[in-house]
Amino acid sequence: MSSTLSWPSRAAQRKFLPLSLLSRHLAAAGLLIGPAWALAQTSPSPAAAPTPPAVPAPAPTEAAPTVQQVQINGNQLSDVEERRRSTAAKIIVGRDEIEKFGDSTVGDLLKRLPGVTLSGTPGRGGNIRMRGLGGGYTQILLDGERVQGGLSLDSIDPDQIERIEILRAPTAETGARAIAGTINIITREGFTKRRNEVRASIGLENGRVQPRASWSREDTLGPMNYNVTLSAFRFDRADASQVHTVNDTDDRTEDKRSNSARNGVHLGSKLQWKLDGGDTLMLMPMVVYSSGSSHGDSSFEPGALGTLPYSASASKTDSEFSLARVNSQWRGRAGEGNLELKAGVGQSRNLSHSWTTEFDSAQGGDQREDDRSQGVERTGNASAKYSLLLENDHSLVTGFESEYARRNQTSQQLTNGVPATADYGDDYLANSLRLAGYAQDEWNISPQWAAYAGLRWEGIRTQSQGSDDVNHRNLSSVWTPLLHAVYKFDPKRRDQIRISLTRSYRSPDLSDLIGTTWLAKGTNSETNPDKAGNPNLKPELATGVDLAYEVYLDDGGMLSANLFARRISDLMRTLTTAVPQGDGSTRWVASPQNIGNASTQGIELEAKFRLSTLWADAPAVDLRSNASLYQSRVDGVPGPDNRLSQQAAGSLNLGADYKIPRTPVTVGGNVNWTPGYRTRLSENQWAVQSPKRVIDLYGLYQFTPNARVRLSASNLDPRWVETASTVGEETATTTSRSYINWALQLEMKL
């Protein structure tokens, strides 16, 4: 969903950065953009061209006809210029950046963007995070709509993406469920010019082939403009890991190995009709299907101490995912303004069947676990937006949104052919209804000042019923005021300051609100607990402030420094406790709880420029870098390391691109680094994550204007990644292996 705003901005409301943290972060700023800061001071502002002397025109002859030449410039704004003019303070990532490394997944692409990190092992995807904050803090949108139905972004081929918008602060129109920020992925736009492209690539990881292909077409068919993108992929991967468990009686290491393959296809399109009076109608169907299987085995190393849960195990899993949805959009005039109506429906299905056999288990003899599950989710949404230009350079936008989701989950857990304990739920039915209304006004106060004010209300109702036959309900609603302002020191120059005061929130996931409990696979323990929902969860509320200084260079580069702070109330955190059972035994159960207040703050630095701008005789190397430093504190948890869960201390990206002169070759690379961290979750729970470093390189050879080949290598110098979880006296440490991924891609315009 593109914003109607035209100046830049940012977000937050209360709790500015502590001076001690601010001074440390500003000192770090020099490491990133200090060498480039001279460009901001020496780069000249565009000057008016001198008026050439008048030259008498020759007298026309009788034979010379009069010809009038008209030149029309309709060039699209660059990503950097669109960012400078946007009131929503959004970072724009266009097709050039998306195509650069030939990434096979959206996650691989996002990890190089400012302030974005991924959980998990490199090359294996993971949750997308902004400002180091974990799941639920970052709002993910697809074409301006929330991602629903269990759709994984890694199932979307990067070739289907037109651009990516990153908003570090919420706006009334895009939604306020964005404490960390918003990532809006825009798929291929409607018809702009005739285009017919084919891409085919072959990847190689650890001796296993990963083919991928896509086809994109833009054209007209009678009164209809359309684009369509079809992509298909196959992943074939091998994984290895070790799990080291230590408690007061045991010290054991388990080796795990697995092989998995997955095939998928994705079809997306936009069909557009221009109606009488300038109105437009658009249909946007999407179909996604994937299926896969995996098998693995594990064994304990010789010499393991204590009582083993089993001596070895073997497992197999088959899974299938399908999604079909269609969205519609109508735009037209309504009185003095413009009206936009949207509606959509969708359905997704997720099937899984897994078998695990534990040989010589602690229960005596072999133990077989058989798990089947099927989830079907139906969704619907409708919205209306009205925009109106008023006097005194005001732009008013009001809107209403509704969204409904209904999920039916059926599952069966068998141990040696016997169903799981009756106290635990197999099946559940849940639904959620979200309503929202908003109003926003953006206006240019003067040539130097622009402002934006918005107010949004959002209410969510969830209902769930599990094996306990109790109907659980949860109601929550939030008012979120938003204020952004931009100040230009001189309208003729290109440096500016943004400040934003906002309120945002994080709502519980539907699965967290379901009043049922799921059994853990394997042996129940402190570090492998059962999972339970909590129908009484309340949403987190956050107020904060963002302050940014930006310099836009004449060569299309830019420098920026952004400070932010958030104060969070009703923090949600999953805690593990021992729950007595009816037969006198005890089971460990992890359940989300509201535990109190927290705060987070940090600084984000970014620099993009051409090396020759800083050093006149330097080669034309395009440099890009971004660095972030974060700090957080949870009030209800004793220190040290009482940070927000899953928040790293920062992130760093350093990259460069170079077009070799007089050749059709372009080369480039990027280094991504995320430091390790230790987090205290409660008085007796800790989580540890090791540092991660990912090196990516690519080379591009342009055969003709319509054909090129790209060779890329992701995760050069692969390393083992370590995570650890401690509950009470037990610590489980998982060490996972990562691999180099090579890819050769052919791109052709037909």
Describe the structure.
This protein has 750 residues and is mainly beta. Helix content is 6%, strand content 59%. The strands form three sheets. The protein has a 22-stranded antiparallel β-barrel. A five-stranded mixed sheet has the order 1-6-7-4-5. A two-stranded antiparallel sheet has the order 2-3. A hairpin with a 5-residue loop joins strand 11 and strand 12 (280-300). Residues 1-74 have low confidence and may be disordered.
Task: Describe this protein with a few key phrases.
750 residues; 5-stranded mixed sheet; mainly beta; 7 helices; 22-stranded antiparallel barrel; 36 strands
> How confident overall, as mean pLDDT?
84
**What composes the largest sheet?**
22 strands, antiparallel, barrel
Per the principal axes of the C-alpha atoms, what is the gross shape? globular
Which parts are unreliable, with pLDDT below 50 for 5 consecutive residues or more? 1-74
Content-based structural category: mainly beta
Tally of DSSP helical segments: 7
Query: How many beta-strand elements?
Result: 36
- Radius of gyration, in Å, reads 28 Å
Spatial gap, N to C terminus: 30 Å
Fraction of residues in helix:
under 10%
Which band does the percent of strand residues land in?
over 45%
